[in-house]
Amino acid sequence: MPQLITYGNELIRINPANNHIEYSTSRGLSWISRYSGSSCGTFRDLVVYNGKIVAVTDKGVYYSTTKGLSWISKCNSSATRSFVAIQDAGRELLAQTADGHLYYSTSEGLSWIRRR
């Protein structure tokens, strides 16, 4: 599961050992913690979509316009709390659950529809 993205001149990652969002401007040679809060839950995956960083966590879908320094809840339905992966599919966001269900959003993650 991807937990590393490129955003501008930075690499941004989820550190699963401590659930921090970290960044590197040295191509990954060194990492600096950017977000270490717990209010978003456990981060599972990140994607850049329409200039924002979108994250799936065990508490739902969040987004950041501050390179991961702060996070705003986008959607916290029972379905989104089960997402383990997210990706940019052009005109929509795609998210997958641990049991293989696929969801899509055409509202930047505000609402989700299960793909049949």
Layout of secondary structure:
Elements: E1 4-7, E2 10-15, E3 20-24, E4 32-35, E5 43-49, E6 52-57, E7 60-64, E8 72-75, E9 83-88, E10 93-97, E11 102-105, E12 113-115
Antiparallel strand pairs: 1-2, 2-3, 3-4, 5-6, 6-7, 7-8, 9-10, 10-11, 11-12
Please, could you describe this protein's structure?
- The protein is an all-beta fold.
- It has a single domain (4-115), classed as 6 Propeller (Neuraminidase), CATH 2.120.10.
- Helices cover 0% and strands 51% of the residues.
- Strand 11 and strand 12 (113-115) form a beta hairpin.
- The chain is globular, with a radius of gyration of 13 Å.
What's the main sheet like?
Answer: 4 strands, antiparallel
Placed side by side, the strands forming the largest sheet appear as 1-2-3-4
**How far is it from the N-terminal to the C-terminal residue, by CA?**
23 Å
Radius of gyration: 13 Å
Q: Which percent band covers the strand fraction? A: over 45%
CATH architecture: 6 Propeller
SSE run? EEEEEEEEEEEE
Mean pLDDT rating: 95
Low-confidence stretches: none
CATH superfamily placement:
TolB, C-terminal domain
Q: Percent range for helical residues?
A: under 10%
Quick gist of this model?
This protein has 116 residues and is mainly β. It is 0% helix and 51% strand.
Quick tags:
Neuraminidase, 0% helix, mainly beta, four-stranded antiparallel beta sheet, 116 residues, 12 strands
